[in-house]
Amino acid sequence: MPVVAVSKALRDRLGDEGAEDLAKLLSSVEEAAREDTLVVVEERFARRLAETESRLNQRILETEARLDNRVTEEVAKLEVQIARVDSRITEEVAKLELQIARVDNRITEEVTKLRADMSAFKTEIIKWMFLFWIGQLAAVGGLLALLR
């Protein structure tokens, strides 16, 4: 707080007491003016701060709305792509199931053929076994007849 100096001429006219009272009066007026100025500056600052806050809140709300719309659009696009991929996978699974059914039928046919072939081999082997046994019996019988 600056010190108010009263000139010598004014001090001589007012006297020491009057000069001091004048200095106190001027100091208090200056202090009041300073306080009033601070109040006005604080009010302006508060108003500007509130306006800035309001603008920022509005911008934030607008940005949130844009982001919301963008996210909704992207989710919709992803859902469409997922549906396409799902249908392609379903088609591929159906194709694979058809191929598996064909392979299963082919395996069943081949197993049936193998069983038929094995039965034929079995019959052939039994036929040759009987012929071999008959030949063996004839040979043993012939040897026994010779030895007697």
UniProtKB/TrEMBL annotation:
Task: Provide the protein's localization.
Answer: Membrane
* UniProt KW keywords: Coiled coil, Membrane, Transmembrane, Transmembrane helix
What domain of life? Bacteria
Transmembrane segment boundaries = 128-147
A single GO CC term for this protein reads: membrane
The protein's name in its UniProt record: DUF1640 domain-containing protein
Give the organism the record lists: Thermoanaerobaculum aquaticum
